[in-house]
Amino acid sequence: MVLVPVPALFILRLFQVNETITFGCPVLECRKSNDALNARFQSIEAGPPPSAAAKRGARSKPTKGGAEPVQRSGTRAQRLLKASVEVTKWRSERAPAEHIGRAQARARCGKKGKPMPVDQSVYPAKELCSRCGFCNTSLIAQVQDACAFLGAGMARIDQLEHTVHGRPRQEEELYFGVQDGLRPIQVAPEARTGRRAWTGVVTSIACEMLRSKAVDAVLCVSSTVDKPLEPKPILARSVEEVLQTGGVKPMLSPNLLPLEELWQVRGEDIQRLLFIGVGCQVQALRSVEADLGLKELYVLGTNCVDNPRNAEALHRFLQSASETPETATGFEFMQDNRIHVKHSDGRYERIPVFSLKEPQNCTGVIAKSCYSCFDYVNALTDLTVGYMGVPWQGGRMTEHQQYCVVRNERGQKMLRLSQSVLELGQAEELQVDGRLSRQQLLPEVLRPELDLAFGQRKPRPEPPRWLAELLSEVFTWLGPQGLDFARASIDRATLRNLVCLEVDLLKKRAGQQMELDATLPKHAKKIRSQYQELFETLLETYRGKQVQ
Ligand SMILES: Cc1cc2nc3c(=O)[nH]c(=O)nc-3n(C[C@H](O)[C@H](O)[C@H](O)COP(=O)(O)OP(=O)(O)OC[C@H]3O[C@@H](n4cnc5c(N)ncnc54)[C@H](O)[C@@H]3O)c2cc1C
Ligand code: SF4
Ligand code: SF4
Question: What are phi and psi of 67, to 5 degrees?
Fold first, then answer.
């Protein structure tokens, strides 16, 4: 879900620790390199003081572990970043030359942590934790390298992209990430599944991966009958189980939790896995991919932004948007500047974004992890599915076209195996010129968004419904469309999060203090450079305030 994608922001306009890091490798045969890495890190971190080194004009002494000595340069944060990026590169490149199997991988596990209980209240990333489930598994020992909100965090995406897709992101891939194709997509009408968010592309691909035996299990997000919007991640073994998991559960979800089952007897026979998830979860997964003892891992993801932090937050948002929040089974901010809410009795509400009731009550709905996130398009998947790049077609979301970004050969394979149920369009259909540019609109939409984040929104009277409907129509006609709508959504989330981090959240990151740029992937810095003046003005406006 998108709490406030692009045009939703028009709305807002109108109505307004210091910690020692060690790098751990759980596989015994990697211990030697692990020691060398830790030594290298220490060498980077604790080399001779610059003045002494400069005086001698010499390099630091070789370290005990035999790591190549490194000249100490830059701030501590820069050195930590460098070390962290090297470890990410090393970890992700060390997939075993031959498949060793789960039991062996587990037996070799030299550094297995004690999983945190699921009702744990404080996690390593503290306030910024997205409750991704990683820390509820034995993999927790590697949290410093895997978590998207610790150390260099999402800056590691640059290196991981290279490792996962075989090349870095190119200039023209700034917004949607490494790609081997970007196409409109939908499930053919006669093949659509019962439970689905849009036309059910994700569920259908997952079913075809199981039917074709390309995978033994699918890790996806189910829910219970009485709480259809609350996530319950599962390892599904059958098509029937997967069919029950369609639909977005708009809340932070511990998707990595079922990975623990891979280490237990129940998961022993899972050699080929399809993982479905969002950016922060996929980053943690990719960081430990080589340790899972899987023969094959496929990653199918969705775009993701502005997730509510828990059930209470979601309920607060629904009260603002819907007349009957208790029967809501799904909702989306659509490209027609309306929030479409699906209900259990089949009803749809279409609420103009300008008609939200008391929008100031939505402060504190979005999770702080999502205010620190720079992976809207889920860059480390093999295939990402979303809706925001498709021009508005009218009708219901469950009948509306979607789009996909194929990132590599595994992504192509998923589409090939599912071709009997999918309809793919042409990339050109996504290129539609809007009448106003996103650059013109962004300043107007960012302030109310930031007011919401920092708890500065003031109550204002709602406009009459007819006016709200008219405004939604006008903005849909005037605003960016297709891929440009998606770019505007990404610009908005990126700039807003840059301000939230710099003004407040960076201080709240657990562990060593980092400079903002040391935690950012390259694409976030490039987007900022397009709006440098606006960014600095917003920093001045919100300096000293706290994200709520
Ligand atoms: C939290 C969230 C926010 C999103 N925001 C945007 C957005 O801003 N722009 C955009 O273009 N698209 C966004 N999407 C993607 C979009 O809403 C649809 O999920 C996507 O188009 C796939 O639709 P579908 O009908 O193919 O999915 P379905 O076939 O219905 O399958 C949905 C899949 O999503 C998984 N899932 C459900 N809830 C979660 C969760 N909380 N965390 C992780 N995985 C989950 C389930 O495992 C299921 O397999 C978001 C998705 C999620 C989960
Ligand atoms: S985001 Fe995930 S990996 Fe990071 S601290 Fe939270 S549960 Fe652990
Ligand atoms: S917006 Fe980012 S941090 Fe929040 S749930 Fe989605 S991927 Fe994770």
Answer: -70, 150
181-187 and 338-343 as β-strands: parallel, antiparallel, unpaired?
Answer: unpaired
What DSSP letter does each residue of 115-128 carry, written as one string?
Answer: PPPTT-S--TTGGG
Would you mind telling me the total number of residues written for the chain in this entry? 548
Instruction: Determine the residue of 123, 128, 130 to mutate for testing ligand 3's pocket, defined as the one with the most ligand atoms within 8 A of the Cβ atom.
Output: 130
Instruction: Report the Cα–Cα distance between both ends of the chain, in Å, rounded.
Output: 20
Of all protein residues, the one whose alpha carbon is nearest to atom 34 of ligand 1 is 248
CA distance 337 to 471: 9
Beta-strand pair 402-406/383-386: antiparallel
CA distance 153 to 430: 32
pLDDT (tens digit, 9 = 90+) per residue, 96-106? Answer: 445 556 666 66
Residue 416: per-residue pLDDT? 98
Cβ–ligand 3 contact at 257 (below 6 Å): no
How many Å lie between the centroid of ligand 1 and the Cα of residue 384?
A: 10
Angle at 358 between CA 352 and CA 361, to 5 degrees: 120
DSSP 95-106: --SS---HHHHH
* Residue 449: other Cβ atoms inside 10 A: 25
Residues 180, 412: contact at Cβ < 8 Å?
A: yes
Q: Residue ranges of the alpha helices (H) in 175-262?
A: 201-211, 239-243, 259-262
Of 269 and 283, which is predicted with more confidence?
283
The tokens for 62 are: 């070789």
Q: How far is residue 399's CA from residue 196's CA, in Å, rounded to a whole number?
A: 10
pTM score, whole prediction:
0.85
Residue 140 has a CB neighbour count (10 Å cut-off) of 19
Q: Is 45 left (phi over 0), alpha (psi -120 to 50) or beta?
A: alpha
Question: Where do the DSSP E strands lie in 304-373?
Answer: 328-333, 338-343, 348-352
471-502: pLDDT as tens digits: 999 988 889 999 999 999 999 999 999 999 99
Average pLDDT, the chain: 84
Task: Decide if 328 contacts 298 (C-beta within 8 A).
Answer: no
DSSP 50-89: HHHHHHHT-PPPPPTT-PPP----S-HHHHHHHHHHHHHH
Comparing C-alpha atoms, which of 340, 509, 489 is closest to residue 9?
489
Please answer whether residues 387 and 403 qualify as being in contact, where contact means their C-beta atoms are separated by less than 8 angstroms.
Answer: yes
| Predicted pLDDT at 56 | 32
- Look at phi and psi of residue 336 and say left if phi exceeds 0, alpha if psi is from -120 to 50, else beta: alpha
Report DSSP letters for 134-197, one per residue: GGGSGGGGGHHHH-TTSTTGGGGHHHHHHHHHSSPPPGGGTTT-S-SEEEEEEE-GGG--SS-S
Ligand 3 neighbour 299 (Cβ under 6 A): no
User: What's the gap between Cα 260 and its chain centre?
Assistant: 21
Give residue 429's identity as a one-letter amino acid code: E
